[in-house]
Amino acid sequence: MGQPRSFNTFVSAIIAIFFCIILINSVGAANLASTETPEIFYQQIEVISDFFSIQNLTTGDGTQLSAYVINGPSQPLPEFQAEREASLLANSPDALLPNFPSYNWVFGCSAVSAAMIAAWHDRGEFTNIYTGPTNNGVMPLTDTVWSTWFDGKQNYPSNPLVASRNGLDGYGARGSIDDYWVASGSSSQDPYITGGWSEHTWGSSIGDYMKTSQSECNNSDGSTTFWFYSNSSDKLHCSAMLSSGVADKDGTYGRMLFYQARGYLVGDCYNQKTDNNSGGFTLANFKAEIDAGYPVLLNLEGHSVVAYGYSGSTIYIRDTWDSNPNNVYTMQWGGSYNGMKMISVSIVHPVIITGDHLLFLPAILK
Predict the structure, then answer these.
(1) What whole-number distance in Å separates Cα of residue 309 and Cα of residue 294?
(2) Which residue in 78, 115, 239, 280 is deepest, having the highest Cβ count within 10 Å?
(3) Residue 280 to residues 228, 252, 292, 358, Cα–Cα distance (Å)
(4) pTM
(5) Is the dihedral of CA 48, 281, 61, 250 positive or negative?
(6) Do strands 224-229 and 353-354 pair parallel, antiparallel, or not at all (unpaired)?
């Protein structure tokens, strides 16, 4: 027998209140922020490699933050290719998110990683994430359904969920590529600035919200920035990014904005260093994310990947250099991949409330 209508209404109200609390404490919606911009004192950028830099700052209240600038290579580094091929999955997984998308590098590894996660949700119950004309409005498992394009130096795949482009997937105006892209690694001003035209309206591409490749945010072409506490293992929640004045420059905060723009609530939203990098995010935390149906965006020291399964301390990843969903690459938790060690996670949980119950994500294979 069903519950009485009054009981269902009561439960719905409790759930709604619960998620309002999450939004206030974990997300920190923009309209709750102070109208005053916090005073920030920047320090010089420390270049660790061609693909990774750190910038430190101190806010007016003394909080010390560090920006990890991830500028992953558009192709695997040749000296690590044999190691990469050897990492291909050979054994059955303990836990794996099934039918997980696989996209190749375009616009930036962090945006591609975030797009694979968004596509996973779109192929579940979050069906308003991709609404284009391809595949009956369901984001495909691979980007090979779209033709490649050439920027004058290199061929790239097309992926409208990562970055829009004039003529791509029914888009009939300038988009992300037209406005922001010059060439991989370029620090030149964006084309819309030098060309003197208006920036396109964001809506369907997650890379826009993450500020990937945007010169106005000091991101060279291909790079994205993520902020962390400098001297703490704690989570830097999106609400704290907002109050600290760095939200408009952070890739994780941008992921949250994208889901909100597509009509969804967001629960957990934070950056955290991993436990091998003086952080608090552990292998147990990672497994809990996967078991709950949430893929994890992992930042390496110069590259972003998506982890979507595990077997013991081995984790299964999409490395943004392969469009074949049958290829599963692996790395050890706390280890290195392509010569770059694991350093942090970007966590964003989109949420749907339907009637008097929560929407659970697709089940994992175990």
Answers:
(1) 10
(2) 115
(3) 12, 17, 19, 28
(4) 0.89
(5) positive
(6) unpaired
